[in-house]
Structure formats: C-alpha cells, structure tokens
Amino acid sequence: xxxxxSRAASRQAxxxxxxxxxxxxxxxxxxxxxxxxxxxxxxxxxxxxxxHGYSGQGTPPLYGDYEAQRHWMEITTHLPASQWYSYDLQYxxxxxxxxxxxxxxxxxxxxxHIDPSWIALNESRxxxxxxxxxxMRATAIVLEFIVYVPAVVLFFRSRHxxxxxxxxxxxxxxxxxxxxxxxxxxxxxQYNSVMLGFLVWTVHFAAxxxxxAMAIAFCCSFMFKQMGLYYAPAVFAFLLAKxxxxxxxxxxxxxxxxxxxxxxGIMLAPWIGSLAQLQQILVRVFPVARGxxxxxxxxxxxxxxxxxxxxxxxxxxxxxxxxxxxxxxxFIPSCIHLFYMIRQTRTAQSTANAIRLFKYCxxxxxxxxxxxxxxxxxxxxxxxxxxxxxxxxxEEWAVNWFVQVALLSLYPLLxxxxxxxxxxxxxxxxAFLRSCPACPADTHTPYCVLVLQWMxxxxxxxxxxxxxxxxxxxxxxxxxxxxxxxxxxAMFVAFLAYFNYRQFTxxxxxxxxxxxxD
Length: 518
Hints:
Elements: H1 4-13, H2 17-27, H3 34-49, H4 65-78, H5 98-114, H6 130-156, H7 165-176, H8 179-189, H9 192-207, H10 211-224, H11 232-245, H12 249-267, H13 275-285, H14 300-304, H15 310-313, H16 316-343, H17 351-372, H18 382-389, H19 396-409, H20 411-416, H21 420-435, H22 447-469, H23 479-505
C-alpha cells in the first residue's frame, strides 16, 4: 500500500496549466483576484462564442432553437397563459415546463420595454436584426450568471467540500469553462444553464443539510426543463434515506412532500383550474409521439439502430416499455447503494462522504437516462456532465475525458450551426488547460489510462479529418455522423460502468459512512 504522503506527492506532480496559474496566484498572495479573473474570463468566452452563428440562422420557415426561444417570449408576452401551450403548435409550440414559460415571459417583458418589434405577435417571426440578437445573447448570459455561476462558486467554497484553495479555484474555473455548455447555450442557443444551476443548488443545499431548500431547488430544475427529471431517482433516494436516518423522519418526509407539492402547485397555478389545460401541458412536455430519439444522438437506441431497426420492429408503446425497463435496470443499483449507505450514516463527519456518493449517483442516474430513456436529444448529454464536473477534483482524468467525448458527440449539431471555429478553440483550450495527456508533469494518471486517452484522441481526430477531407459514399451520406454516434455511445457506456464502479468502491475503506455500533 502506498503511503498517504506519496499519494499527495503524486497528486502534486499532476500539474496541468490551469493548476499552475492558481498556484502562482497563491505564491504571490494574490488569491483575491482569482475568482474575479475566472468570472470575467468566463464572461468573455461566452460573449465571443455568441458572436458566431446559432441554431437555424437564416433558414426559414422554422429557423431553429434560437427562434423557438424568441418565439416563446413573443407568445407569453402577448397571450394569456391559457393559450401558451396550445397556440400555433406547428410553429415552435411551447414544449417545456412552466418555469421556462415564466422565464420567457420575463425576458419578453424586458424586450417589449426596449424594442417591441423584437417580439411583435406573428410579425416578428424569424427576426434576425443585430440588436435583437444581442438582446437574446445577453439574456442567456445574465440568466446563467444569476442562477448557475453563484451556485458553482458557493458549492466549491462550501466547508463540506474538502479541497485546498488551489483545488477549489481550479474546479470553479473548470466548471465555468466547460466547453459543451458554453457552445450549446451561447452558440447553438438555449438556457440549459438555468436547469443545471438549480441542480448545483440542489447539491449545495444537500451539503448544507437544508433539505427543504434542496427539494425546492430540484423542483425548479425539472420545472424549468423536463430533463431535470433524469436526476429524480438519485434525489429521491438521497432524501428518502435522510428520512429513514433521522428520528423525526416522518415529519421530514411530510415537510418535503409539502414543499414539492407547493412548489409545483405554484408553478402550475395559472392552469390549475382546468384539467384539459393541465393535460395539454403534460402532452407538450412529454411528447411520446416524437419517437424513441431525435436526430443522431449518441445513446444506445440510436447506436443499436445501425444494426437493428427497433422503430420498425416495435410500436411506440413497446418502445416506451423497453426504454423504461432498460433505464430502470441501469440506474436502480446506484440508487439502492446510495440509499443503503446514507441510511446508515450516524455522524456529522460523514456529510462530505454522503455528498460525494450523492454526486456519483446523480451522474450515474442521469447518464443511464441519457443512454436508455425515451426521446433523448444530443444536448441532453449536458445533464450527466453537470454532476460529473462536481467530481472533477476527485475524478480528474475521467471527467476530463468525459468532457472531450461529450464535446465530440455534439459536433454534428454544432457543425450544422456553423460553430466549427468556437468548437475547435474551446476543444483545444480544454485539452491544453485541463486534460492534455502529453503534459510532461502528469505522473498521477495511470499509464494505461494515458495510452487509452491517446488512442481515444487519435480516433476523434481521425473522425474530424475524415469528415473534413473525405467525401462520404453516395450510398452512406451520414456515415461520419453514425460513426460518431457509435463511438461516443460506446465510450458513454464505458463511463457509466466506471462511475458505477467508483460509487460502489469509493468509500469502501472509509468508516464514516458505516453504521456505528453503540
């Protein structure tokens, strides 16, 4: 067994450039400028990415996700809430939960105050003026810096996160400069950072043992985007274990149930008096009719479709049952383990370990949903990436690699949006600052992992080179996209197995999560 000191020395030897920067600031007693510089740099990167193209730019009649977000501001501002989920569904009908609708209404109200032409009902469809685009880009940045950024900073500054000052700053920098979220929210254009921000708040409140606030934050996450439900089994297992763990567990259970029902009820208040409208929201938010998956997403069903055409062999109901069973089988072991371990916790010192397990379970559960659930989008890989990044100091090489593969899986979508330049800039920036396997000082990552990372990097580069310079056969026009899907899916399955293994073995030798005998 290696001694603890040797492990620390090995960890110090694993010094990637971003760590060196914060070590330099610490050596100069300039810790006070670390966070402002990180936040300003993150802001600059987002604004620069926003200068490039976006989803559906200049492609009438429907355009893309950018137009969908703008259109929702239009309808929520001009129409009563009773029509939000039923108005002209053929032109980007609202299909996200009520908190997204309220956010659209708020942004629309601001837009109406500045320039009403940006959201004029029906007349503003497809508007792409310079000022309207700057406004839309600004809303994405402002909302992220209101919800997501403070959550990340507070979480890594929490006393329950056992890290050195340098490790905390490196983690904050890495999470805020993660390329996938930046390219989707500020390039392609969406507001995923709000949903993910509420998830980070959920974990933060769990670490603070503020379980009512935790439940409310989680409700806000899935009431903003339904993909937040990917985290539901892990959150449920964690809170249920806390109820069993405490002497007043029944009271805590009632309080949590009241908080959840009240939060959801408040958000559904405009439609609560009409069963038909509630059903319409449900149908729009969970569109089973759209099929097993959309486009070329790097999950199991799309990868399997290369050899077995499940959508031709099975009807929609059978596919729903199949995906539900597969998803449950993939996430249940992780949730049972989390419940069992936390239920046995009896000491205050175990809080950090409980949160560590919770982060693993959030990652494993959401990744299982991405790989096996029904109706998954390419962008949904952002959901498991969020808890993975909260583990970036503990699972350095694995999370770095996971981010690289996730970024590759998004390339077909970003290529269509014309975002190749920001894609490559951020990919290289991440590889250099965080995960370059050629870093000469890296003696911490196992040699076999370095070899596999190099092989993975070469495969990813080969896919990009082939896509750029070798025209696909006429009979296989989507061959490079399909190869991307198959490769990334295989890697994601491997990551799911690895992170489950880590959850089950991470604390095996630590007594703080074991039940103490009287």
